């Protein structure tokens, strides 16, 4: 076919030897056969998709994309950071760490306790019916387990911060101490699953890129939440704590490993994490939470006292931003994965490229 | 009452879309308007919140025994798609409100007065059936005409089908009918006729079976649909590891640091 030679559709063409030769060919075919088999210029959009074992059903996606808005990745981010902050606040208190650190961690947890349910409820198709989720507890539904965890966490974290604040403001009293201690213990218990359950939530779905990573997502999300919580605490002025430094280093190291794991996988399930906008977003989130945060922290170990604080704050900001970008990237990757009609039909990419090229 | 199912026989389907219209009329589902797909006579594309029955138009090169009467006409086969009403239904397991239930007829039913539109069923369906209606906020799909079955009637689509391509009945009887039909089709030379009924996957069979010719993938029927609950064990194990490491790491970090502070502060 001579489609490559056509410059402007319906425009003026300069005749040359090949164009005239082609017209003669058409005439000869018409004389010889009484008809011309060539189809002329391909219409725009050609080659048209087909329904076949190699092209699926016209290449139309089988799976539906997540109906969630931007509020859900933001919820993953806020919940992850709040859960990790509650765990750190409780342990720091039990270990007798700096009071400011404990107080700040509780405030982060309490802020998350307010923001998280607000985001989750606002994203429902019928927010007024949020309470319908409390009709049942279904262990086989990560959404149900998550909602109950969120509820327990929110109550506990808010109560802890409130009782702590009242105790400091108006003097300690027995009821306040009971609320504070019980709330702190409960926010530790709920904070542990709350910081990572969203990994199970998206992992146990029909979306290939999510369910193929179900064994790694909760740990990945926990590390991301920990990095974000440490970052927030450092930005609030707790930039001398060696415990936070150690936890920040650990989270950044794990995120480095997670990035290498994703990059090293060749299976097409991983394509949305490596190619296109969702791939670059995954990479950006990973680099910010992993290598960048790690290098800044490592540098802060050797810097002077003043530089050290600044470097740690930058590491914290990097991990915080990385955590947010990571959550958005994973949700976006889910969209890309759901649109990929090849995955659920188990049609390899090679066949498709060959077929589209040849038709 | 008995456990019921659909058997949709694409070798009998004439692509009239009576099932789609009957479904929309009985269930009061709005029309979608007309949007040309530009590459097929199928201008609907897929099942969704407002399309509970969907006739697929699988068009291929001229082939005797498929569609058109003239040799140069495209060959056609049609198949009316519907919610599969899985034996192990991803949407039902995922639903956090208990809105999605198993009916006494074996179907999977979304109670519209309970659904709060969380959208988790949408990502949990291995067949991409259930969808949130963004105007309404709730999730919708085929009800298996629960209301009609309660009244002792057959579903609207099956009743309106003029060629009995959509058959409805007791599930074991229909499986028997499907085998007999396959036998007959093969005897008549349609050796590529197959029954789509994913019994050997974690979905554990469906209440909507399909007789199609050739590879079911041409009809967007997945070869190995899996109910997402199979990923739970791995997911929660990973969650437990994450929690243990977070707890242990935090304890270690603060105890080591606290001990050091304690010595420094003379506590």
* Structural class determined from secondary elements of chain B: alpha+beta
Biggest sheet statistics of chain A: 2 strands, antiparallel
Measured distance between first and last alpha carbons of chain A? 12 Å
Sketch the major β-sheet of chain B: 4 strands, mixed
Number of domains of chain A: 2
**What's the mean pLDDT score of chain A?**
90
User: Termini separation of chain B (Å)?
Assistant: 76 Å
The dominant shape of chain A is elongated
Helix content of chain A: 55-70%
Structural class of chain A: mainly alpha
Q: Write down the Rg of chain B.
A: 24 Å
Which stretches of chain A are low in confidence, meaning pLDDT under 50 for 5 or more residues running? 351-359
Using only C-alpha atoms, the radius of gyration of chain A works out to 28 Å
Largest interface: A-B, 87 and 85 residues
Indicate the CATH class of the largest domain in chain B. Alpha Beta
- Unreliable runs of chain B, pLDDT <50, ≥5 residues? 262-267
Trace the largest sheet of chain B across and list its strands: 8-1-10-9
Order of helices and strands of chain B: EHEEHEEHEEHHEHEEH
Give, in order, the helices and strands of chain A: HEEHHHHHHHHHHHH
Q: Helix fraction of chain B?
A: 25-40%
How would you describe this protein?
The complex is a heterodimer of chains A (359) and B (267). With 359 residues, chain A is an all-alpha fold. Helices cover 68% and strands 1% of the residues of chain A. Chain A has a two-stranded antiparallel sheet with strand order 1-2. In chain A, helix 3 crosses helix 4 and helix 8 (217-235) runs antiparallel to helix 11 (305-339). The model of chain A is unreliable at 351-359 (pLDDT under 50). Chain B folds into 2 domains: 4-226, Alpha-Beta Plaits; 230-265. Chain B is elongated, with a radius of gyration of 24 Å. Chain B starts with a strand and ends with a helix.
